[in-house]
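Input record (Table S2, row 371):
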Amino acid sequence: MARPLDRRTFLEAGALGSVALALPLKGPAQAPEVKRSSPKPVVISSANGNRFTNGGALTCVAQAFALMEQGGDLLDALIAGVNIVELDPTDDSVGYGGLPNAEGVVQLDSCCMHGPRRRAGGVACLEGVRTPSKLARAVMDHTDHHLLVGKGAQDFAHQMGFTIEADLNTEHSRKLWLEWKRRTDPEHWLDPEQRRSAGFHAGLQMVREGLIDPEHFYGTINCNGVNAKGDVCGVTTTSGLAWKIPGRTGDSPILGAGLYVDGEVGAAGSTGRGEANLYGLSSFLIVELLRRGMKPKDAGMEALRRVKANTVEKRLLNARGLPNFNVSFYILNAQGDTAGVSLYESKYALCDANGPRTLATEALLPGRALD
Ligand code: GLY
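Output record (glycine complex):
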């Protein structure tokens, strides 16, 4: 039953975002307003989804769209797309060759959601498997659980027949880790707090110096799609924050944070600072706002406003008093309307009947994160 927008609620609402939350709420069992009979098939992802090819002819979004158009399972198509990026050693934010943790070990996170089947699977802190998105799908298909982590996830991979490798570093990722280690010499750390902060700031300095792509410090590819039948699926996979404390897991494998899909409504996923996204479970929030009839761009902007409002610690603010990190969301509704939004301007990838392309996100804030 829709909630009426009474005078008190209206007066209290004030800001645009609050008005949105007062819009009628429809539960998953009811047909949402956003669904229509002939959706526009489309795949949306972070910008690395239209950049890396792993030596082949197609990028992630092009591969996923082509497979989707052949009529196979949509989630299989999206995972085949992100596998290209996971396997490409030149994307140092995802899969093989992802930037390692503080001990030099590559630990990977991923999750996937299947809209029509209302199922999901995830893995976190996974070592030795180049394609965590495939293992996330195996968790979904072969277990009653959603999330397997660490050694348990690796043992499961072994049982499922995945190849386990001793080390997923490439020469490039190891070289950057050694450079970071050099800059954060333990002799100069006076206490654990200073050590943590020194590690983070050395990482940011490497971004400023162009050693690390700003979008790759937190890493990640998210890829979502809707096909001609109106099926909606999504997948997110990452090597996570560069130089993280071993065991740290960000937003990527957490349902509602790094990814959320409602097969009747739409999908949203994220890249960027996972800790900021986790506080607001932004992907879940965005899909709920889509359910209430918001357009993808407006829903994403509301989530970004919350990320900004929750960022109050000085260490996370730049000289302008604004967040010193980026967060981006890749959003589609069940009609095939899309949006790429971010705190600071960035890029995203899209493929539809007109082919793959890279577009500028809508930014909430001016300038760049580190300005
Ligand atoms: N968004 C990726 C991470 O924070 O791990």
